[in-house]
Structures are given as structure tokens and as C-alpha cells.
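input
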Amino acid sequence: MGSAGQARREWVAAGRAIGGGLRGIVGIVGDTHDAVARRVESLLPPTAAPVMAVERSIAAGVNAVVGVAHEAVPAALGLAAGALAPTDAPPPCATPVGRALLPVANAFWGDHLEDRHAPLAIPTAVRIAGSDLAVHDHAAVAAALPDATEHVVVFVHGLLADERWWELPMDESGATYLSRLRDEHDLTGLAVRYNSGRRISHNGAELARLLESLVVTWPVPLASLAIVGHSMGGLVARSAAHQANELGHAWVRRLRALVTLGSPHLGAPLERGAHVADRALRVLPESAPVGRPLATRSVGIKDLRYGAILDADWLGHDPDELLRDRCTPAPPLPHVAHHWVATTLTREPGHRVGHVLGDGLVRTTSARGVGRRRSIGLPADAGAELGGVHHLRQVHHPGVYDHLAAWLAPAAGGGAAV
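output
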């Protein structure tokens, strides 16, 4: 489908998604009002029951009308915008505003978008100059990458992000991880985009399939492959490697190194806190509707509770179970050099406060993959701890780059291909 057709589909999907969201907000207000009214009624004498019933009935009717209107108007506007948009106009998701909002929407509701508003769900893809690379087409890959080298590094972003995060400069020179690895070590860097609201195991499977196609269509003989994943991206990379190894994919035999930057291998405290808040809000009828948006956060975010990277980590388990780690062991592949970076807000990585706060989102123990109750088996001497670096800075920090260069340069060796 051409650009005009894609634009129409995105406008229609955006209108319906916005309408559904607004109706949900109206529903929260209505349900909260009803719960409060019932609480008030329980405190009044029985003679007040008929009056309160009438009041609730009127409120419910008004709420229903308002909800339908809030859903219908954006949906109609989306249809109109899709029909009236110029044929040469870019799709909404390709505009600056759309590109800024799309990763955020996918992070929080990516699984819902995939099920109900598919045109707004980000597909897993290698991105070149703002477009998806047709990895199944040898000619397309060769044309897009005329200077492809025999050593490839794939960069996988984290939650709320997209491939453009790897374009952030490290300093005033404007250099990025990808550009410096190319200039200094002849490594071809590729940035992958994916829907971070989906299951991490599903994104891992998608990444594994994408890399399997890429090694077949790569323009020159491929000597080695490495993956760098930031935050959730490191979990997606581990999931992809584990699943590819189980399935006997060709690309995983070329995988030489896997580096995770601030990845919550043992889970993220923020998601565990959100889970506890979700359960607490459900206790009272008056607070349950207010907590509904929290309860409907994406399954990708919920996977961060304990770092679930495989289907077995969540299949058959109650998603509302309170704080019980059921993640299965997924040890590093023996032929791959696994490295990790953990950072702290404090200048001294070993500071007690830094140990507690970590990088602001992920604690150092989780980034290293070693806790009191579980370890994912990352070598303790194959990582680096940096102080004074917050979570988001890990994708464009000179100190982090120095470690990447040391680990990823072809001369560094790493695990041997099998």
C-alpha cells in the first residue's frame, strides 16, 4: 500500500484510538461517581435508597451519552482527515509530532495497539534514514548499505524509545556510537526499532527472525555479529539469542558479543511499585476506576517486573500475582562474550546511595544480573560500572563508548563462532 493509503489507515486508527481513550476517561469518571454514590447510600437511612437509585441512573445515562460522543467525534475526525489528506502528505506517524508520540504510545499500550489499532503499532525493523530496511531483499540491502563491512553491530533501544536514540551525540563533535565504531573499527552499526509494549519474548522472536534474514542478504561475507541493547533492549537481545540458539538459527553462530547497557535483568523497581499500586487501588471500589489506566499498562512494561524474556516466564502465570519472581533460567550462550554496563547517579559507583538508586531506574545488581536469589550468569569481570551517569545517558556517553569499543572491536576477539 502506498503512502496515501498508509496515511488514511493511520488517521483512521488514530481517531479510533483517541476516541477509545477519551471514552475510557469518561468511564473512569462515571464509575468513580457511581462508587462514591453507593458509598454515600450505604451511610444513609434506607428511605434514601430510591432517591439515590434515581440519581445513579440519571448519572449513568449522562455518562453513557458523553462517552459515546467523546468516542465518536475523534473517530469521525480521523475518517475525515484520512479522506481529505493530500496524496503526497506523509503518514501521521512519519511527521515530527507523530514520531515523537509513537514510541511513547507503543510503550504504554503497544499490545493494545497491535490488537485493535494495528497501523499505529511499530513493526520490528532495521531502520535506515528513517525507513524500514527490506531485510529479505538482497538488492535493497545492498543499495541501502553500499559500504557494508564484514563486522556488524546491531543496536536495540529500550522502553519509550526508538532507533533515533542511538543518533544522540556523545559530545560537541557530533559523534555517535555507530559513527565512531565505523570510523575507528570498521564496524557497520544498525539500529533496530520495535514495539516496546509487546511481550519481550515476542520481540525477541521477531528480532531473531529479522537477523536470520539479514545474514542471508548481507552484501558481503559476514564475519561476525554483535548486539548492543539498552535497558529493555538488552532483555530483547538476550531473548533473541536464546530463542535463536534453541531453533538453530544461522545468525546466532556468528554472534560474537552481546552487550547490555543498564538492562533490568532481575527486574525494575518502578514496575514492581506500579504493580503494588495497581493492586492497592483495586481494594476500594472508589479507587478501582482511577487505577484502571495503571492496570492497563502494556505487557511489555509488566515483563520488566522481574525481567521476563521467555514465554515460559509468563505463560500460565497469574499476571496479578503479587511480587513473585517466576522467571526461568536463561544462561548466556557459551560461545558469546557477554558484557554489561551498570551506572549510578552517584559519582562513586560503589557508594551506598548509588547501590540503592542505581542509574535512577535500574539498580546495579539488576544491571549486572546478580542478586541474592537469582543470577542470570553474566561474568562479573566482563562488565563495567560507571558513576555519575543516569539511565538515559547510557546511549550516548563517552565512557560507555570506550568500553563498547574495547569489547566490540574485531581485534578484541570475543566468543568464537561455531
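quick obs: The mean pLDDT is 94.
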